[in-house]
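Annex B. Sample input.
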Amino acid sequence: MLLTIKPVSLLTVSILFFTALAASPAQAKEGVWIPATLKAHEKEMRHEGLEIPVDQLYNDAGTGLNNAVVLFGKGCTGELISGKGLILTNHHCGYGSVQGLSSTENDYFANGFFAPNMEGEIPCKGLTVTFIRRMENVTNKILAGISDTMRDEQRDALVLQHIAKTEKEYMAATHLDAQIKPYFEGNQYWVAITETYRDIRLVGFPPNGIGAFGGDVENWIWPRHTGDFSMFRVYAGTDNKPADYAKGNQPYQAAQFLSINTSGYKEGDFTMVYGFPGTTKEYISSYELKQVYSITDPISIAARSRKLDVWTKHMGLTRENFIKYTSKRAGVANGWKKWQGEVRGLQLNNATGKKEAYEKVFQKWADTVKGMPYAKGLLADMKRSAEKADPFIKQDQYNKEAVLGIELVQQGSAAESLIACFRLGLGKDALEDTLKKVVSGMAGFYKNYDAATDKDVFESLMTLYFTKCAAWLPEEFATQYRAHNQDINALADDVYSNSMLAAQDKLNAFATAASAGDSTKILTDPAWLLYNAVNTMRKEKITPILKEYYAHMHYLDRLYMKAQMAMNKKKDFYPDANLTLRLSYGQVKGLKPDGSAKYSYQTKLDEVVALDDSTQDIFKVPKKLKDLYRKKDYGRWGVNGTMPVAFIASNHTSGGNSGSPVLNKKGELIGLNFDRAYEGTMSDYYFDPNRCRNISVDIRYVLFIADKFGGAGWLVDEMWIVKSQGGNSRH
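Annex B, continued. Sample output.
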């Protein structure tokens, strides 16, 4: 029998702001909830639309749907969709594994891959999936004998001892893995009893023209038109337990997996997201939020805008450059665009102003509260600490994004490996052999590196750095700047003409003819000099101060979190995301971001084909998909002559929720989460139900692509599919 997932439908008051904004709590649909706590919220969840008992979502007996949701790899979510270990996750979550399997002969990014049968499934070396079998609150065990105000250095040592002891006890008792993590800034601790499978095989992967359609242009944007999914299978040993890859391993026999509902949804329908959100910081002070909003995000955006402009220009010059930089560009652009949406969302919501208003209420409470003497001075201490650290955070962000954002300067770190070779005191032959091995290990960098492109990046980012950081310039930077008559272009000409790090053939020549006296060639290399200067400045002037600041702020954040919970004793707090299993809930809901125009809650294949552009790789629709569209050959997956593609809902998600199942009121799978809407990316810090939306692939589009496009109907045959909500017949 197949159980189905239902969301944590917990109507929760926005803890950060409700006291300051209203006399009575105004409830908001936010929260990433620990599944083991859902029983206390069942009444509220049913009021929102849940139609199954919450113990079908999670229980300690091993029959809950927590056994159907997995941590995919190291930072995504996946879900079981058959009793034979078939896993569904995002296309971008499988990207790294598929890259390792691809070649010019088997270009799965261009052509896609769908196994013809189980024998054709491809092992993915190093890929794992982890099941959460049980979760338990172990706060009393971990914090035994530890006071609230004990300083973190001493406290952390005791906590680590208690964690090691407790994890060992759980592993001995369960014969499974056990991992304990902090929640509520270290005021709570939970253990997760886990089981990690190591034989994972690729089953289905649509080509980039489907799975990555729209690329960076549509990233973090609604509407979306992306079939962002892939399929893998978990294999097990003869005892159905984790095993290293072996040809004789069998598909994992799953007692719990998700049923699939293909009847669709309408606006206002109840939904849930089950998965592993990565990081949120909903309860931090206004001073810490200002550091994100006013310092780190704007600096990163400014620096990456310059880098992306240069890369885009050079990628358009030659196909070779395009191939070298397309993956790197996507990685840099992902954060760049997300941070822009984050800043805009925080600005539109006056999030810092609301936190400041809340803090005034908190301070009035802290001034009079009994039994918590440290509460009174928390905010003042946070303010002093943050304001002292702000200039150091600002400078280090420029160091990281502007200086170390230049590939050649980054490569200065590789020169450290060469310098280490000379320190070994080897003879000439042994030295040359060692250097050659180190240099050969750098081949991957040069394969996707173009010095002319990077030189333009250098000129652009160094101009930004010298303009914004004049008072903080490392001495070597100032010396070089003066030596080149304060001309960045002249400095760039010198560095890229004379650095052996700028070309692999120069490094190879150096390694081949090196002798003990040649170490000075590295120590005088202009690229290494810049790297060493900024790295030394960070180590000596910035890192110690920031290390002390973050340690102190962590201590204050823990006490502030405890005090907030004491002030709002009737409030049902959810802990910040930390890549542990959580459940959130919301509704299928369109988006009205600014004006009166309302964005639909759903996109369709008609819009995908309308965007087809053969001149842009990211908008090239595969010919077979266009043929299916023209023939309206949607099989059993189409709706009224068209094909649904993606939809949005108001579930609270974060990084790590990529690949999470989206479930209806009966816990049936209706979609696959993969993104957030632009201003809604602020939900890591502030959740606004009017703007925060999670974006998902419609499960019918997934099935259509697998069945009609990929020719993998045999996969559909092993799934449990219902046509109406609550039905139990297989189609």
